[in-house]
């Protein structure tokens, strides 16, 4: 089959690779009909997530048709011919974490738990196409994928909704939604979202659905801010204005009640010297992540507010504003999305027309043009917001 | 050498105990074991696989057991690597799960066998037992040892990075299996 693979830092390559096969009794093989490039794929390609290997099949946002099931798959849950969206964290459904609906922290699905434990203190779940640290599972930017625990995660789509309306249930829609949900939004809340990429846009839409009075979008790309503005959110361009002053202005001096970091470890910064400080520390491996957004969100949030982190962090950060966090009674909440928890309720919201996930799609390319898709997305060329690949 | 490890399994203690007490189950999750054969009510014959040193076999006996709580055993006769172990099963505070606490003791000899054993355990001997217990948890909670494209061989996957790429196996690789 054809598959998009990691080919070294800053390089992806669509290659011929073997077709997947059943390795565990509860596996299924899915023929992929739609897949997407995620912002976190860029962290892998940019070389910020360790344990990638040449030839790793990338991609963790995909859907398609079940073409084979292992002998252990419960036929009441999944059969050949079913149309499914596959959640990016692989979860067993039986461990303590799964019982607590903490699916991205599943205790059983990462065969390389030993390295994950060394990096993170405790292991994390397996993830499709997302380094060997998260299990070494081939991803979904391919014609076919092997899906372990196929009777636990995949969501059957039984209506006639188009692929593009449901594809993002695999990751970015639930991720954005969880970012807003962790904010425990009250009707009077002003919610500020750093990052107007795909996850940020869905965090903004979710904040509004959950009842926020006002939603603010912070980014530097005018086209991304315009996209947020068209969806009813208030744009703040950090290259044009001082974010803190503007946020104070928009909130009567209180600061946003809830702040969402939808950027993570590769943040860029309006202030050159701080950006350079982090970039240099990252380059000499004295700091693995550039936590600019996290710092600014903590400093901006009103006292007693919530800072919710859905942007990806991978290792250690420097200059964490612990004083602001502690003295001003802030709550910091975070997590890789527990996608399985949100798929069904969000499918309901899509069916009822409460949310339109297709609004962020700017590019549709054949799988063989994945490399071009990565270039467009990474360099924000051609007003690229979200690339959907068709195998 | 003394190794200790612990894990929590979301199954009741009698079930976890029963699985371990059927010693023939041990090779499903303990990487170094090829086979354990029950030879009597309390006696058994253990065979360790090649990386541990070729043809290492020994007899063992259970010294002490309390159903649902504890099993203590040791090798008997003149084992190449005299060893002993204890496993305790304790109800976890959640009222559902069982804590499994394992202690293994190896009396590592000199000579080639001792060298092979030392090489097998490597610089981080605890890692092996931690991974064994992770697989025990996988088997009891999900039914089998979880495999990925990077680590497709279940308990025979020793190295976590670098490993084979996260890419499906070719027919030839699959046919060759873990020894490839």
Tell me what the structure shows.
- The longest helix of chain A has 13 residues, at 339-351.
- In chain A, helix 5 packs across helix 12.
- The N and C termini of chain A lie close together (10 Å).
- Chain A has helices at residues 39-45, 96-99, 113-120, 163-166, 172-181, 198-209, 222-230, 243-250, 272-283, 292-300, 322-327, 339-351, 370-378, and strands at residues 2-6, 12-16, 28-36, 61-69, 83-86, 89-90, 126-127, 144-147, 155-156, 190-194, 214-219, 234-237, 258-261, 306-309, 331-334, 363-366, 387-390.
- Chain A has 391 residues and is an alpha/beta fold.
- In chain A, strands 3, 4, 5, 8, 9, 16 and 17 form a 7-stranded mixed sheet that branches. In chain A, strands 12-11-10-13-14-15 form a 6-stranded parallel sheet, with helices on both faces.
- Chain A has 2 domains: 2-171 and 337-390, Medium-chain alcohol dehydrogenases, catalytic domain (Quinone Oxidoreductase, Chain A, domain 1); 173-334, NAD(P)-binding Rossmann-like Domain (Rossmann fold), CATH 3.40.50.720.
- The mean pLDDT of chain B is 91.
- Chain B has helices at 13-21, 111-121, 125-142, 171-176; strands at 2-9, 33-38, 43-48, 56-66, 70-76, 83-91, 98-106.
- Chain B is 24% helix and 31% strand.
- In chain B, 33% of the residues are buried.
- Chain B folds into 2 domains: 2-146, Alpha-D-Glucose-1,6-Bisphosphate, Chain A, domain 4; 148-180, no CATH class.
- Chain B has a 7-stranded antiparallel sheet, with helices on one face.
- The A-B interface holds A 3, 5, 17-21, 23-26, 51, 53-57, 72, 92, 94-96, 99, 107-115, 117, 126, 129, 132-133, 135-139, 146, 148-149 and B 8, 10, 94, 96-97, 127, 130-131, 134, 137-138, 141-144, 146-152, 157, 160-171, 173-174.
Into which percent range does the helicity of residues of chain B fall? 10-25%
Task: Determine the oligomeric state from the structure.
Answer: heterodimer
The SSE string of chain B, one letter per element, is: EHEEEEEEHHH
Order of helices and strands of chain A: EEEHEEEHHEEEHHEHEHEHEHHEHEHEHE
Q: For the record, what CATH class of the largest domain in chain A applies?
A: Alpha Beta
Number of DSSP strand runs of chain B: 7
Low-pLDDT windows of residues of chain A: none
Strand content of chain B: 25-35%
Terminal CA distance of chain A: 10 Å
Q: What is the makeup of the main sheet of chain A?
A: 7 strands, mixed
Give the total of domains of chain A.
2
CATH fold node name of the largest domain in chain A:
Quinone Oxidoreductase, Chain A, domain 1
Largest interface: A-B, 45 and 37 residues
Structural class of chain A: alpha/beta
The name CATH uses for the topology of the largest domain in chain B is Alpha-D-Glucose-1,6-Bisphosphate, Chain A, domain 4
Low-confidence runs of chain B (pLDDT<50, min 5 residues)? Answer: none
User: Which structural class best describes the helix and strand composition of chain B?
Assistant: alpha+beta
Named CATH architecture of the largest domain in chain B: 2-Layer Sandwich
Mean pLDDT of chain B: 91
Strand content of chain A: 15-25%
In DSSP terms, counting alpha (H) and pi (I) runs of 4 or more, how many helices of chain B?
4
């Amino acid at each position: 089959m054809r598959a998009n693979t990691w080919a070294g830092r800053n390089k992806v390559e669509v290659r011929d690779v073997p077709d997947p096969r059943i390795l565990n009794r509860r596996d299924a093989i899915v023929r992929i009909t739609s897949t997407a490039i995620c912002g976190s794929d860029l962290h892998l390609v940019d070389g910020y997530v360790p344990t990638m290997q040449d030839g790793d099949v990338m991609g963790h946002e995909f859907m398609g048709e079940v073409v084979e099931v292992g002998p252990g798959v419960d036929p009441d849950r999944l059969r050949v011919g079913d149309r499914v969206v596959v959640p990016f964290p692989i979860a067993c459904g039986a461990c303590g974490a799964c019982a607590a609906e903490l699916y991205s922290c599943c205790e059983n699905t990462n065969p390389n738990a030993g390295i994950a434990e060394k990096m993170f203190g405790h292991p994390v779940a397996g993830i499709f196409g997302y380094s060997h640290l998260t299990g070494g599972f081939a991803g979904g930017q391919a014609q076919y994928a092997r899906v372990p625990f196929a009777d636990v995660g995949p969501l059957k789509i039984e209506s006639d909704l188009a692929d593009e309306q449901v594809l993002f249930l695999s990751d970015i829609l639930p991720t954005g939604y969880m970012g807003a949900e962790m904010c425990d939004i009250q009707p009077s809340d002003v919610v500020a979202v750093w990052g107007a990429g795909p996850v940020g846009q869905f965090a903004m839409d979710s904040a509004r659905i959950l009842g926020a009075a006002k939603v603010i979008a912070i980014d530097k790309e005018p086209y991304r801010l315009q996209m947020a503005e068209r969806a009813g959110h208030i744009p703040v361009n950090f290259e044009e204005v001082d974010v803190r002053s503007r946020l104070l202005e928009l909130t009567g001096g209180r600061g946003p009640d809830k702040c969402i970091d939808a950027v993570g470890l590769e943040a860029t910064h309006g202030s050159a010297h701080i950006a350079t400080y982090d970039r240099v520390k990252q380059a000499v491996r004295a700091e693995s992540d550039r936590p600019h957004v996290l710092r600014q969100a903590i400093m901006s949030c009103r006292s007693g507010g919530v800072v919710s982190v859905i942007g990806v962090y991978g290792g250690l950060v420097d200059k964490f504003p612990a004083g602001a966090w502690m003295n001003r009674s802030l709550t910091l909440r975070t997590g890789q999305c527990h996608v399985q928890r949100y798929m069904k309720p969000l499918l309901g919201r899509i069916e009822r027309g409460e949310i339109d996930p297709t609004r962020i799609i700017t590019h549709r390319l054949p799988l063989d043009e994945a490399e071009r898709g990565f270039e467009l997305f990474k360099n924000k060329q051609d007003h690229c917001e979200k690339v959907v690949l068709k195998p | 050498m003394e190794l200790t490890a612990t894990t929590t399994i979301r199954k009741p203690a009698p079930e976890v105990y029963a699985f371990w007490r059927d010693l023939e189950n041990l090779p499903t999750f303990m990487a170094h074991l090829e086979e354990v054969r029950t030879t009597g009510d309390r006696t058994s014959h253990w065979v360790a696989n090649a990386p541990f040193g070729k043809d290492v076999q020994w007899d063992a006996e259970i010294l002490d057991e309390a159903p649902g709580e504890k099993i203590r055993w040791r090798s008997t006769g003149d084992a190449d690597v005299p060893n002993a172990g204890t496993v305790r099963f304790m109800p976890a505070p959640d009222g559902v799960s069982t804590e499994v606490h394992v202690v293994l003791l190896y009396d590592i000899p000199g000579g080639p066998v001792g060298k092979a054993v030392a090489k097998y355990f490597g610089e981080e001997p605890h890692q092996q037992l931690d991974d064994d217990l992770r697989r025990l948890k996988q088997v009891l909670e999900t039914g089998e040892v979880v495999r990925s494209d990077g680590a497709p061989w279940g308990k025979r996957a020793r190295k976590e990075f670098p490993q084979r790429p996260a890419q499906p196996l070719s027919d030839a690789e699959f046919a060759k299996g873990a020894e490839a």
